[in-house]
Amino acid sequence: MQNTGRKIILFTVSNVIPLLILVSTACCQNKFNYLQVTGFSTGFNLTNTTTLENRQTNSNAFQIVLSSKATNTFSIYAKVSSSTSSSGTAMPASMLAVKLNTITPSVSASFNTIALSTIDQLLQQITTPSQFWSNNSSLTLNYDLLCGPVGYDYAPGNYNFTLLFTMTQP
Question: What is the rounded average pLDDT of the residues 34-50?
Answer without folding.
Answer: 89
